[in-house]
Write a sequence for this structure.
């Protein structure tokens, strides 16, 4: 008899986005004339940068010619892309990362979800609350948690975010093995300073733990004093794996290209305390289960690291940051406390009421969609997330409507 992986039964239904969709369709059925502005989902809206499009086209033409055609590529990615990433994203900022420590993939979602496979089942995990749900759910699927009880899974150490700590969790007061961190953060938009990140690196070193650092939104960091990579902190090469993506950086959400950095000095241990290279383990996993990102997509991503491509990406990011700053300003003027919106595309707002109540209020009175914070964890209750991924015109319209709705 074929049996299911019963860990899947512990998962909470992906209630958040389906519940949002339900509430929108009920509202639209009742008010078909009302136009809705969506500032809920974290998907980009602007077209790919011109340099990426041109490189994409050229590479597709190469595939049409027998002499330049490419079949299977290296699973880890083409060296033309890995070398540019190492030079532009890391070495240029003083982070000692080599091209062969970079694994090109089709998404930071898959990588941050799949990475847990290379760690023991009894790994003690620390996960922030609120959190990007992938980290938690993939560990539930693997059987590292107990049941879901009162908003929490058993066997997980939750790192609580709140207004007092600015949604930058405090260090655990007990040893853990694996720590998930994400900065700039989704959903809160919080960013971390180098000094604070140094504390996490020191904690990991002292506890022989590993940090999984999700930097999918690093391109939004404009303040040069803030770290874009965990490897800007001394000692991180031994205790951190970093995830990056072209999704939010260069509008690749539908094109798919990302990468994971696993330094060769990063180690984990077996039951007897013998050291093993995580680079070798991840390489084994990646080359067994993944067959590489398509050649044209890697060429399109490479174009980000050209003079024109880089300038175009900066303009794209600036565009969304202008939206973020408008949202932040208007929300603050209305008297709400918020986090994010600077060096980040997300604004996390204390609604001073139940998350879903605030969601309904914005939908019904302003026709604006946000994301209820409680969908990202218990600590998100009372908050909503507004995303800057939309056109400036739509963001302006949404903010004017919110102001109108909340001041009348
Ligand atoms: N990591 C975080 C924190 C995200 O918010 C997202 C997407 O929303 C991802 C990773 C996924 O990135 P990708 O499109 O590369 O899978």
């Amino acid at each position: 008899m074929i049996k299911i992986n019963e860990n899947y039964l512990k998962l909470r239904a992906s209630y958040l986005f389906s519940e949002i969709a339900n509430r929108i369709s009920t509202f639209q059925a009742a008010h078909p004339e009302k136009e809705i502005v969506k500032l809920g989902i974290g998907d980009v809206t602007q077209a790919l940068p011109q340099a990426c499009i041109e490189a994409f086209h050229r590479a597709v033409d190469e595939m049409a010619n027998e002499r330049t055609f490419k079949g299977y590529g290296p699973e880890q990615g083409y060296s033309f892309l890995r070398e540019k990433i190492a030079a532009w994203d890391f070495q240029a900022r003083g982070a000692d990362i080599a091209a062969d420590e970079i694994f090109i993939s089709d998404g930071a979602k898959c990588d941050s979800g799949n990475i847990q496979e290379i760690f023991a089942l009894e790994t003690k995990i620390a996960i922030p609350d609120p959190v990007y749900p992938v980290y938690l759910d993939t560990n539930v699927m693997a059987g590292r948690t107990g049941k879901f009880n009162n908003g929490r899974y058993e066997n997980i150490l939750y790192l609580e975010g709140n207004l007092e700590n600015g949604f930058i969790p405090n260090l655990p007061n007990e040893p853990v093995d694996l720590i998930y961190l994400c900065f700039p953060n989704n959903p809160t938009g919080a960013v971390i300073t180098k000094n604070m990140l140094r504390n996490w690196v020191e904690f990991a070193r002292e506890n022989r733990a590993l940090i999984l650092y999700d930097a999918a939104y690093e391109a939004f960091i404009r303040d040069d004093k803030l770290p874009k990579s965990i490897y800007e902190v001394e000692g991180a090469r031994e205790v951190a794996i970093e995830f990056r993506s072209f999704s939010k950086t260069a509008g690749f959400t539908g094109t798919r290209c990302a990468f994971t950095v696993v330094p060769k000095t990063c180690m984990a241990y077996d039951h007897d305390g013998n050291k093993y290279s995580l680079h070798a383990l991840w390489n084994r996993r990646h080359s067994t289960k993944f067959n590489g990102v398509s050649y044209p997509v890697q060429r399109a991503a490479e174009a980000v690291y050209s003079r024109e491509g880089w300038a175009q990406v900066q303009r794209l990011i600036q565009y969304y940051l202008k939206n973020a700053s408008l949202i932040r300003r208007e929300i603050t003027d209305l008297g709400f406390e918020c986090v994010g919106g600077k060096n980040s595309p997300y604004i996390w707002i204390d609604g001073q009421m139940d998350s879903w109540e605030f969601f309904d209020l914005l939908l019904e009175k302003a026709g604006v969609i946000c994301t209820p914070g409680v969908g990202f964890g218990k600590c998100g209750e009372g908050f909503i997330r507004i995303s800057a991924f939309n056109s400036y015109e739509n963001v302006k319209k949404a903010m004017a409507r919110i102001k109108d709705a909340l001041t009348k």
About this structure: The mean pLDDT is 96. The CA atoms of residues 113 and 352 lie 33 Å apart. The pocket of pyridoxal-5'-phosphate is lined by residues 42, 107-109, 112, 132, 182, 186, 214, 216, 245, 247, 253, 258 (CB under 6 Å).
